[in-house]
Amino acid sequence: MGLLLxxxxxxxxxxxxxxxxxxxxxxxxxxxxxxxxxxxSDFIAGKLDGVALSRDGRLTTAPLxxxxxxxxxxxxxxxxxxxxxxxxxxxxxxxxxxxxxSKGAATPIWTADRPEVFAIAVNPQGDVYAASSPNGKIYRxxxxxxxxxxxxxxxxxxxxxxxxxxxxxxGTGDEGLVYKITGVGQxxxxxxTGQGNVTGLMLDPQGRLLAGTEPNGILYRITAKDxxxxxxxxxxxxxxxxxxxxxxxxYVAGLGGALAKKIQATQQNQNSQxxxxxxxxxxxxxxxxxGGDLKPAAPQDVKPQAQxxxxxxxxxxxxxxxxxxxxxxxxxxxxxxTVDTLWSSKEENVYDIxxxxxxxxxxxxxxxxxxxxxxxxxxxTLVVQTNEAEAVRLLNVNNxxxxxTANSGKLYKLGAAGTKGTYESPVFDASGISRWGxxxxxxxxxxxxxxxxxxxxxxxxxxxxSPALSDASGSxxxxxxxxxxxYKASLNTATxxxxxxxxxxxxxxxxxxxxxxxxxxxxxxxxxxxKSAAAAPASSSYSIxxxxxxxxxxxxxxxxxxxxxxxxxxxxxLVSWQADDPDSDRLVFDLSFRGEGEDQWKILRHDLHDxxxxxDGDSLADGRYYFRVHASDRESxxxxxxxxxxxxxxxxxxxxxxxxxxxxxxxxxxxxxxxFDAQDTVSALxxxxxxxxxxxxxxxxxxxxxLDSRTEQxxxxxxxxxxxxxxxxxxxxxxxxxxxxxxVVLH
Length: 747
Known about the structure:
With 747 residues, this protein is mainly beta. Helix content is 3%, strand content 49%.
């Protein structure tokens, strides 16, 4: 059996419809799907305004967020409390120190000649110590007058800590030195850490100095000059925030992106430009370095970018985030030096930690300026979201928490429980135009609004927010049919809460896609077990495929080379196809055929779920045929089903061998001449041979020299034939491998 294919026609090719993400029902076809949000990880992806989120996924009203102070600068680096309840704050990138009284009145008390004041400290007498960077000094501000207190001759002064006896300690970079300062100009190197930067300093309840470093994330306990104990070696590059409790526990925040190194790079940008202080920016967004060792290179290897930017995301060397590893973590070092990991994140950096009542811990991060509360049993609550870039520092003032932020250098106060708040969900992608059903939720004091559109991010092309819905048992979504949907939940009372919410939707049904039709040969099972593949001629096995290329409209068959499928031992023809449904609907297929010159399609198989059909090799007579596959998703869509079709290229079936006609046979002496012709009714001749007395087959060339027609003339001259009677056999094969034989007896 031979098969010959030309270029065929194509079926409809629909666009792809991707399945919905998040929590979506698995039903397909005409069944509704559901977008559901009920967990912490679901809700945390949205925008919270005056709303808190508990670990078990409950939205409640958050504490009121009052703006105590707005510096008008990008970042507040440090905030401390002094005598008489006065708050002091230092800023970047104009290097100022402010005093803020109990009524919230702020006064600038000093402006440095350097752009950053990373650290401040205050003694019981109200003297403020402020460290400027880069290449700055430590100043003492007394009675409104600032004087130089000590010059460590360091590029950066990252941290300050004031002991009860008035001794001031300073953590510096790039050489990672800790200085002990006992008076004006009286200071010495207290401990050389061997690290690049000393990014955090604190005295524990026993008066021992704790020093957090970068880039190897080591926490030191320094007990005397040049004497220290490595209390903890973090897997993260930077130890920045430190806190202690009365029982001797030390809380440590490890960062994965080395904030100090990024600030250094930004300051190098600054030094490369004249009068650029107002526009230099410093990032507090950090990521982990890729590779097995998460610790970054030493600070001196950091290359600055050529240009500074206005925002808090500067043009600094890009950090490479290692996927699948923690980005930051909070550790507790117990009095016996054992270490517990209390919390870690692959998405957020912790910038400050603050012990609270009942063993709780409050900390701030770099995602929307969030403030979290972690209970003693490790239950997490998102207390408030400032919607600033970073929550840089935290301070407890009379049991009220102050939050210093970056991007906008503001100081917020967490007040009493709020009476209202709003939550905007992340945008839901239904992956195609969908009809929105009812939205349901569990909660109290909540109303819901929706909006929809066909762009990934809400813009002017989206619909307006719908009127508020109040029926939690099921309210129809009034937003237009579209691909994307978003809801806004309003918590309208102090006791309002939202536990879960789901919205039904009906995706638009999309038609199936038939990618290709393949016609190939195969041996029947019995023949396949006894016939060696090596025994078959080289031409006896090939597969012919027509593929839907995605071009619009039918494609003409002219100019396409004919291919054939050898008969050999092959007694079956396999028609197979590849098809799928964008909606994952179950498909049912019909397979039809039509002979060349015929008008109507004939059904070969109906209502198939398989994607192949094996046919008897002799079930179709010689000739050219087309095969058509029809796919339907009707079983999954009783109404509004979709269909697709694809037609194969022409297939030539040739089951009949060539016929040989011997016209003459003459013998003169030892030579013999045979004249014959061969003819095939379907396909061109491909091979002609002769054999004498069962010997080796030798090729014969046609008279015109090219074996390429269905009819050919041959003249065979055998130069030497031994005396006596001999049997000469002629063999001619067509394109399908069918062979015709004829015998000539030579006397």
